[in-house]
Structure formats: C-alpha cells, structure tokens
Amino acid sequence: MDAFLCTTCGTQYAPSDAPPPACRICRDVRQYVPAQGQRWTTLAQLRCGHQNQFRRLQPDLYALATQPKAAIGQRALLVRTPAGNVLWDCLALLDDATLDIVNALGGIAAVAISHPHYYTTMAEWAHAFGCEVWLHEADRDWVMRPDPALRFWSCDAVRVLGDISLVRLGGHFDGGTVLHWPQGCGGRGALLSGDILQVVPDGRHVSFMYSYPNYLPLSAPVVRAMEARLAPYDYDAVYGAFWDAEIVQDGRAAVAASFRRYLSMLERGTPA
Length: 272
Hints:
By secondary structure, the protein is an alpha+beta fold. It has one domain: Metallo-beta-lactamase, Chain A (4-Layer Sandwich), CATH 3.60.15. It contains 7 helices and 19 strands. The chain has a 7-stranded mixed beta sheet, covered by helices on one side. It has a 6-stranded mixed beta sheet with strand order 10-11-12-13-18-19, covered by helices on one side. A two-stranded antiparallel sheet has the order 1-2. The longest helix has 18 residues. It starts with a strand and ends with a helix.
C-alpha cells in the first residue's frame, strides 16, 4: 500500500490501496482544491523529479526547500544546538541526499511544525531520524497520518531542546506556532515564524491571515491575542516560510510595527 500525498499541499495520508477521495486539508477554506481537481502522488514519485536545495542563513541555521517547487513551496529550517538539532517545519520530499546532508550536520533530535499546511511527510522524517514531531494539541484533528512519533503539547509555550521554545500564537490555525531561538543571531535571538507571521516582500514587516490563498484576514481580537503571547520574547531576526522571507535585524521592532499597522487598518481603516 502507498501513503499518498496531495500534490497541492503535500500532506501525506495513511497507507491505503487507493488515494483518498479528497484532501481534507485542501477542502478547508484556508487552502484550496485546484480548478483541475484533486491530484495525488507518492514519495517515490516525488523523488524522481525533485531534489532539496540547502542554504546557510547564519551560523547553525540552514534552510532547505524542494526544487522544482512542490506543493505549497515552503522551506524547512534546521537549527543546530549543543542539545541537538531541531527541524522547523517540514518538506514533503525526503531523499537519500537529504538524509546524508542532514546527518552530516548532526541529524535531527526533534521536528517542530508551525501548522497543518506543513505537516507533509512528518512521519517519514521522524522514522528516518529517530525523533519525535512536536505539534500543538489544538491542531490534532488535522493529522492525516497518525503515528506514535507525534508528540502533542497543549500549553501556550513549551521548551523543546536546550533553550529552544515553541510559542503558540494561534491565528492562521488555533495551534499556530512559532519557534524562539534565543542563541540565534549571536545571542540576540531569532524567531522562526512559518507563515503564522508572514514576512512580506518589503522585508520590513509581517502580516497575519486566516487564509493566504483566499485572502481572508484575521480579526482584531485574534491579532491582539497573538501580540500578547509573543510580547515576552526577545529576538533580532525573523525567518519566514519561504526563500528570502527574512527580517535580518530589528525584527522585534518590525513585528511590533506590523501589529500596529494591521490593527490600525482593521479598526480605523488606515494603516498606522
């Protein structure tokens, strides 16, 4: 039996004789089923025409993304720490070259994922590296391939390895999570945001959406709650979900300004 993957979002489903009738992730309003209809692939098929590209972003932080683009096209981030390496977010493609490179960098002690759109083949990664996958309990219902390696947490923040913490902001999904790395940027701190905080093209702001492809905003109360949960954390850089989605300095001030701008637009009709 194959574990089929949705070609639009990259989510892997439990092994079955035939593909599911539809992808539940894509039928949700935060994602979409293409006009051409539901399509499926497998990890073996994906390996035939794709590879993962690696980029060093700063000491002990590496990005990897699949080329040519597969599914949503997000990148994953590998954080190296003395306590072990953390893979932030996940890619559908896991191949031999990726195994070799990641193992050469110290392997993976934990996988942590921001929200269900990036769950992809998380069970494959957990099995390959002998680690657990940290997911927020609020998004448990979006797991399409249950596995004993999945570790659910339920508070607003949890320490994963060493000084690395996961912080639930909510927003895009109820369990929407960011990763706080205090030792990043030479000790000034880094925030790995997925698209819970979406770094926008100007490289000086982030934004917040319920649905990115369908352009559905979040309400002011939800964004204010996100702001309050993030307030205790210091960081200088923000690394988002896609290539070049980065604020490399003064990130905390940029995020604060982005909260003000977004809330002003909702409440007064003009950006701050």
